[in-house]
Design goal:
The complex is a heterodimer of chains A (260) and B (383). Helix content of chain A is 33%, strand content 23%. In chain A, strand 4 and strand 5 form a beta hairpin. With 260 residues, chain A is α+β, with helices and mostly antiparallel strands. The chains are: A alpha+beta (260), B alpha/beta (383).
Chain lengths: 260, 383
């Protein structure tokens, strides 16, 4: 079990993770690592808050031959008749936790968007390029803003603005994929990268990166930073941690979307 | 009124040809005068160049100095030129670094676009750093004469300014202390370091290569139009109206080297957009971007169209081949992808790569070649 002293601040982790990724050959073949180094532009600013905004970061040539409907899309993908990609967007603002025994949400703001796209030539006509897409976003709901429907603190939502923003969107252009889980612990840049890599590439492709002990450490550290407070707060509804931790009750209640 | 900037053009052609080359620029310019001379031998020129610098603010060198020239053949008085433009430039740079002579802009040009020179030019842009500019002679003196005149003027002026007073980052970039905090700290740090430890030429070279002439912190007019989704040619005067608005709102770059090179701050364009619309600029399509602008300003801008084979109209850069708007997700990376982090990666469209005339114009990065080959196979199969 890693302890806090082993884990650097989110800002340091982000920097080291980015530099680590840019050196990995497989990662270079699927991404534009340069764009990752760009978001470190104000990394040395004073203060504990780590803030970044990654926009339309492409993961190219994703493995789209499974779980895709309709079948003809699956066939096009299998026969490499199109270009597939995941576009990842992560806007995040988070605190550095200094006291391990005080459990609260390190995240101030989070919006993670995963857009899956597939370009193909409609009716094999090279002048008619079409894009199929679907998207999920995972963000932090601000509980102070009321809501009429169930709105867990962290949640996945299928579709979202990516679909509705296009005027005259043709619903025949949907690709349907396996349903997402509704509740999910937060994904910062490190965890979102891990999520995309492990979900959209075959193990034999990504293992050169993901089996690297350094990579595993970055993911573990990120989970420790974000998922430990999430998990303890979640579990505090079912177990008494009062002897061990001071838990931010509002955070714990919001996770389960209950007001008591 | 006397002209404020004088350049020396060394070329191994006869005097009539040399003077003919620079005549147009001398005629149109109220600021720059170019005088020409024969290079002479190394023995003579390597010494005289120091005294030359008393009266000149910059040097233009013909690349092929070593060729046996007509002038050399035709007269006994003129000695053979026995040195290369690079050796003279090196000689000047070394002595400027030792503070024996002042540092001046040195421009190299070649008579035609031959392959050797084109290779040299490419090399210039990456590793060699003797020259401030590398040009085709006809581009410099005829085709782009108005631009070159402004650039020659700007370079000489900036060299003088930098050598006459203490380096002030805010003045050089024409930016407030608050705005400075918005720029990439790695750029600021490198710039300050070069300014304190290196020569004037090193500083100017860094500004040109890593700031002024590259898409990154600054973007040129074509990229501004791409980011706003606008087709410049089809939009006519509406585009001029938008440009005027951008200049009124101080989105344009006004710091050093802004006279010779017109640029806009990338982050200020985003800020400007945020005052117009709450739609995220990067992820909004060109037709929506243009609709928002037309609604807001009553203009008749026309949205840019996608390059052949491209799927996205969320344009953010231009294709280095066609110079038309491109969403990087449809592009193929070219060239040096290990560039400084504040610069944008350069892309070409598949269409440009398939249609390119000069095989040496650019090269798709090794890591993208397989993706391109697959894409090409798809096009050929369906065409």
């Amino acid at each position: 079990m890693s302890r806090m002293k082993d884990i650097l601040s989110p800002r340091e982790e982000l920097k080291n993770f980015s530099i680590f990724l840019t050196k990995n050959q497989w990662f270079n073949s699927i991404c534009v690592p340069h764009d990752l180094l760009k978001i470190l532009n104000n990394n040395a600013k004073a203060g504990d808050i780590c803030e970044y905004n990654l926009v339309k970061f492409p993961f190219k040539n994703i493995n789209l031959d499974r779980h895709v409907r309709p079948d003809w899309v699956s066939r096009l993908a299998r026969e490499e008749e199109g270009e597939s990609r995941v576009l990842l967007e992560v806007a995040c603002e988070c605190n550095c936790i200094s006291d391990e025994d005080k459990i609260s949400d390190p995240i101030i703001m989070l919006a993670t968007k995963i857009i899956i796209q597939f370009d193909y030539f409609h009716n094999s006509n090279v002048e008619d390029v079409k894009t199929l897409q679907c998207s999920w976003h995972l963000d932090k709901h601000d509980p102070s803003r009321g809501t009429s429907t169930s709105h867990p603190l962290y949640h996945y939502e299928y579709g979202g603005t990516e679909i509705s923003k296009a005027q005259g969107f043709n619903y025949g252009d949907f690709i349907l994929m396996d349903s997402p889980r509704i509740m999910h612990p937060p994904l910062d840049l490190v965890l979102a990268f891990d999520f995309v890599i492990k979900n959209f590439y075959a193990y034999n492709k990504h293992k050169s990166l993901t089996d690297d002990p350094s990579y595993k450490r970055y993911v573990k550290n990120a989970q420790y930073r974000l998922w430990r407070p999430y998990a303890i707060s979640f579990a505090s509804h079912f177990h008494d941690f009062e002897q061990t931790y001071t838990i931010d009750r509002a955070f714990a209640n919001n996770i389960l979307h209950c007001s008591q | 009124m006397p002209k404020t900037i004088t350049y020396l053009f060394l070329d191994d052609n006869d005097k009539a040809t040399r003077d003919g080359d620079v005549q147009l620029l001398n005629t149109i310019s109220t600021d720059v005068e170019i005088k020409t001379d024969y290079p002479l031998s190394w023995k003579q020129r390597s010494k005289s160049i120091f005294t030359d610098l008393d009266q000149y603010d910059g040097i233009i060198l013909d690349w092929e100095l070593t060729n046996q020239s007509e002038a050399a053949k035709g007269s006994d008085e003129v000695e053979d030129v026995d040195f290369s433009a690079e050796s003279l430039a090196e000689h000047l740079r070394v002595n400027a670094a030792k503070k024996i002579v002042k540092d001046v802009p040195i421009i190299i040009c070649s008579a035609d676009n031959n392959r050797t020179f084109s290779n040299l030019k490419n090399r210039e842009l990456t590793s060699r750093d003797l020259f401030d500019l590398t040009c085709i002679k006809n581009d410099l003196f005829v085709k782009h004469v108005k631009n070159s005149e402004r650039q020659l003027f700007d370079l000489a002026t900036v060299y003088k300014q930098l050598q006459s007073k203490t380096f002030d980052l805010k003045e050089v970039l024409d930016i407030s202390a608050d705005e400075l905090g918005l720029l990439d700290i790695r750029f600021i740090d490198t710039l300050e370091n070069i300014a304190t430890t290196n020569t004037t030429h090193d500083l100017v070279y860094f500004l040109l290569q890593e700031f002024i002439q590259k898409e990154g912190l600054l973007i040129n007019e074509a990229v501004v139009a791409a980011r706003l989704g606008i087709d410049i040619e089809k939009s006519g005067t509406s585009w001029n109206e938008i440009k005027k608005l951008l200049i009124d709102e101080k989105v344009d770059y006004k710091g050093f080297l802004s006279i010779g090179w017109s640029n806009y701050w990338a982050y200020k364009l985003i800020d400007w957009w945020k005052n117009i619309s709450n739609q995220d600029l990067r992820t909004t399509g060109a037709s929506v971007r243009v609709q928002i602008l037309n609604d807001k300003f009553g203009t008749t801008l026309v949205p840019a169209e996608r390059i052949r084979f491209c799927s996205s109209e969320e344009f953010w850069t231009i294709c280095k081949g066609t110079k038309r708007p491109l969403d990087p997700i449809n592009g193929f990376m070219i060239g040096d992808y290990t560039s400084n982090p504040w610069l944008e990666v350069e892309y070409v469209s598949a269409y440009a790569e398939l249609e390119k005339e000069d095989a040496n114009a650019w090269r798709i990065s090794a890591i993208e070649r397989e993706r391109f080959d697959k894409f090409k196979a798809k096009i050929l199969k369906n065409e």
